[in-house]
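JOB MANIFEST
job_type = single_chain_structure
chain_count = 1
residues = 119
[input]
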Amino acid sequence: MNSFEKEFVIFVAESERSPLGQARRHFRFGEMNIYMRIGRRFYGGKVRPCLQIASLSTDEDHQRKGIFSRFLACVLGATKLPIFIEGVIDPGFADALVRRGFVIVTDYNGFQTDLVLDR
């Protein structure tokens, strides 16, 4: 288990101990900075617990090098929660997420997109 996976497991446990089932934290995964929350979201006609990726950034020099793929594999291996990615502004990245099984939940007139992966 790498250091991110250890931190992520602690993060999930923190949300499970919270009376409201919530947690928020900044993470570093390789060259990527991520801000995530665990909480509840309304979609599919219900309020559901989920992992929310609110922000992620990588320098242009490190994009398209598999960092996000490795990050997502770690997250998928550590939680069964639905995964929301909020406010995607790069249409190419949104398309790549759809190819991975994410579904567009909200499209803000092409400006940004919210997506979910619910397994």
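[summary]
The domain at 3-117 is CATH 3.40.630.30 (Aminopeptidase).
The chain is about 30% helix and 40% strand.
exit_status = 0
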